[in-house]
Amino acid sequence: MSLLVVGTVAFDSIETPFGKTDKIIGGAATYISLAASYFTKKINLVSVVGDDFPVGAIEMMHLHHVDTEGLQIKRGEKSFFWSGKYHIDMNSRDTLATELNVLAAFDPIVPESYKDCDFLMLGNLTPSVQMQVIAQLPKRPKLVVLDTMNFWMDTAWNGLMEVLKKVDVLAVNDEEARQLSKEYSLVKAAQKILKMGPKYLIIKKGEHGALLFNSEQVFFAPALPLEDVFDPTGAGDSFAGGFTGYLASTKDISFENMKRAIIFGSAMASFCVEKFGTERLTGLKKQEVEERVQEFIDLVQFEIDLG
Amino acid sequence: MSLLVVGTVAFDSIETPFGKTDKIIGGAATYISLAASYFTKKINLVSVVGDDFPVGAIEMMHLHHVDTEGLQIKRGEKSFFWSGKYHIDMNSRDTLATELNVLAAFDPIVPESYKDCDFLMLGNLTPSVQMQVIAQLPKRPKLVVLDTMNFWMDTAWNGLMEVLKKVDVLAVNDEEARQLSKEYSLVKAAQKILKMGPKYLIIKKGEHGALLFNSEQVFFAPALPLEDVFDPTGAGDSFAGGFTGYLASTKDISFENMKRAIIFGSAMASFCVEKFGTERLTGLKKQEVEERVQEFIDLVQFEIDLG
Questions:
Q1: What does the pLDDT read at residue B92?
Q2: Model confidence pLDDT, tens digit, residues A119-166
Q3: How much of chain B exceeds pLDDT 70, in percent?
Q4: For residue B300, what is the nearest residue in chain A, using CA coordinates?
Q5: N or C, which terminus of chain A has less Cβ within 10 Å?
Q6: Cα separation of A33 and A31, whole Å?
Q7: B6 pLDDT tier (thresholds 50, 70, 90)
Q8: Distance between CA atoms of A191 and A174, rounded to whole angstroms?
Q9: What is the rounded distance in angstroms from the CA atom of residue A261 to the CA atom of residue A259?
Q10: DSSP characters over A198-229
C-alpha cells in the first residue's frame, strides 16, 4: 500500500537550552517520510525545494525508500527556511525567522505514478494547497490524514473548513483543538471537531501524550518520560509519520489498529526529540524501534480483574 | 489492615468558572478518608477542627467507616479555612484567604487504638507535624505515604528533608517535584528525589495523569478525559486516598499492585472533580467505581504483538 506524503522540505535553524544548530534539514514532510520509512517502503513525496537544497539530503531520503519524483526543485530559488528558539520548558518557542521562499508559490503536482495512493498524509500547509492535492487524485485514498496549525485557523478559516470535510483523520495539538472548536474541554472540542468532517481526531499533547477520538471511543497514549528532550522540532510530524506508516504497512484502519499506530507514532516522536533535527530518525534499527515500543507497553500496562 | 490518615479537616470556599460555594467541608484528610473508604473499612483519622465544625460532617465520616477518635475538637476555636478561585484552565488558582485558626498550634495526638496502624497516609501539613505522628508509632507501619507542597520547600526545607527519610512513598505534583529536585526533567527529578528517602515517587500531573517511579521502573496512568472539570479541589487528596485505601485493602505493596492502586486513585480523583467539594465522593456505589475503573482500562488498553 503506497503512502503519499505532502508537506514542507526545508532548512531549519534551531536553538534549544542544549545548544544551537546551523541550517539543518527539516520540514514536515521530511520528518513524516523518515518516520514512516520504518514501517512501509512505498513512500512518495510531493514537496518543493530551491536549488540550494543539498543533494545528500535527497539521497538520504532515497536510502529511506522515499521516492522524490514529486519533489520539485526550483532553479534560482531558495528553500523554505524556519528558525526558532525553544524555552526551557520546551513547550513554547519563539519563531526567529520564517522565509517562505519556494513555498510562497508552491503548486503541488502529484506525479501520475503517485495517483493511485492508498494512504495520503497531508502535512501542515495552506489548506488550499492541501485541497489541490486531494483534487488531483482520481480515486479517493483509503485514508486521508491531515495536519494543520493555528495560523491557518487565523488566516484561512474557510479553506480549512473545506479541506476538513475531505479528510478521515485530523491531527492537531491541544491548543489548536481548542482554537478550532472554541471549547476548552478537549472532550467537548473533539465532539465539535468530529462534526466538521474528520471521522477520527488525534490531539497531540507533546510531553503529555496523545488522545485519539472517534464519535464513540477515546484512546490515550502517553509520551515516554525522557531524561532530556533535546529538540522537540519535528516531534508531531514524526508522530504522524509513524502513525500513517504503520497503518499503511498493516492496511488496517480499524480503531483497534489506530491505537497501535498511535503507539508506533509516539515511539517515533520519542526518538525524534533525542537529538537535533532529523538526526535520530536516520539509521534506526528495527530492534531499537521494537524496544522503544516495548517501553511504551511497560509504561502503561497494568492488570485489574474487576471480577 | 488499618489505615491511619493525618491531615487537615477544614472549611473551604471555592469559586470556579462554573460557580461558587459558601463554606463547605474540605481538607486533605477529609478527601483522603472519603476516597479510601471505598476500599477499606478501617480508617482512623487524626486531625483538628474548631467547635464551629458541623456534627453532620463528622457523622458523614462515620457513615464512611472513618473513626474520629483522633479528631480533636477545640472549644472556642475556629476550624481551618481556605478560600480560592480557579482560573478557566483549572490548573492555576488564586488563594483568596487562608485562616489557619486551630491548625496554627496543631499538636497531633495518635490515640492508643490507632498506634498499630499498617498504613499511614500523611496529608499535606507542616513537616514537623508529620514527623511528630511518625514518632508516636511504636512500630513502623508497612507503608508510609506522604504528601507535601512547595510552601514547605520554601519555609521548612530541613524539616521536609528529615521526614522524607522516614517515608516509603512521596506524592507531589510536577511543579513540586521540579522544585524539590531542582531538575526540570521529571525523570531526572525522580532520580534525585528517590535518593532523599522515599522508595517510590508519585508525580501527579492533574489532567495529564500521574507517574509512579521506583529506582528501576516507571508507570504512567492517565487522567480520564472529562467533558468538564467542575472543581479540582481535593483531586490530589482523593487520588492519595484511593491509592492508599486500595493498598490497605489488598495488603500488597509490590510495584505491580501499586500500579493498580494508582488507577483506583485516579478513578477517585476523576469522581472528585465532577462536583463541588466532597459532594461526589459521598455515596458512590461500588458499581460506579468499577465502571469508572473500566473506563481507565478501555482508555489505555492496546495490544501489540512484537513477535
A1: 82
A2: 999 999 999 999 999 999 999 999 999 999 999 999 999 999 999 999
A3: 100
A4: A220
A5: C
A6: 6
A7: very high
A8: 14
A9: 5
A10: -SEEEEE-GGG-EEEE-SS-EEEEPPPP-S--
Task: Give the distance, in angstroms, between the CA of residue B18 and the centroid of all CA atoms in the same chain.
Answer: 24
Question: Which of B112, B124, B108, B95 minimizes the C-alpha distance to B32?
Answer: B124
Paired strand residues for A202:
A171, A212
Question: What ranges make up the beta strands (E) of chain B?
Answer: 3-6, 10-16, 19-20, 24-26, 43-50, 66-74, 80-86, 93-99, 119-122, 143-147, 169-173, 200-204, 210-213, 218-221
Note whether A226 contacts B185, CB cutoff 8 Å.
yes
The string of pLDDT tens digits covering residues A16-51 is 988 999 999 999 999 999 999 999 999 999 999 999
The three grid cell numbers given for residue A221, joined into one nine-digit string: 497514549
Residue contact A263–B304, C-beta within 8 A:
yes
Distance to chain B for A278, nearest Cα, Å: 22
DSSP string over A47-116: EEEETTS-HHHHHHHHHTTEEEEEEEEETT---EEEEEEE-TTSS-EEEEEEE-GGGGG------GGGTT
Nearest to B7 by CA among B227, B255, B234: B234
Instruction: Provide the b/e sequence for A229-255 (b: ≥16 CB within 10 Å).
Output: bbbbbbbbbbbbbbbbbbbbbbeebee
For residue A103, what pLDDT is reported? 97
All three cell numbers of B292, joined, read: 469508572
Q: What's the whole-number mean pLDDT along residues B281-294?
A: 96
Burial category of B198 from C-beta neighbours within 10 Å (exposed 0-12, middle 13-18, buried 19 and up) = buried
Q: By the 8 A CB rule, do B66 and B48 touch? A: no
Instruction: Tell me which residues of chain B, numbers 128 to 187, contact chain A at a CB-CB cutoff of 8 Å.
Output: 184-187
**Helix H or strand E encompassing A13:** strand A10-16
The x, y and z cell numbers of residue B16, run together, are: 470556579
Interface predicted TM-score of the whole assembly (ipTM), two decimals: 0.92
CB contact at 8 A, B276 and B230? yes
Which of B186, B293, B304 is the closest to A306 by Cβ? B293
User: Which residue is closest to B228 within chain A, CA to CA?
Assistant: A185
**Which amino acid is located at A37 in the chain?**
S
Q: How far is residue A277's CA from residue A201's CA, in Å, rounded to a whole number? A: 26
Rounded to a whole number of angstroms, the distance between the first and last alpha carbons of chain B is 42
DSSP codes, A29-47: HHHHHHHHTTT-S-EEEEE
Selecting from B184, B293, B303 the residue whose C-beta is nearest the C-beta of A304 gives: B293
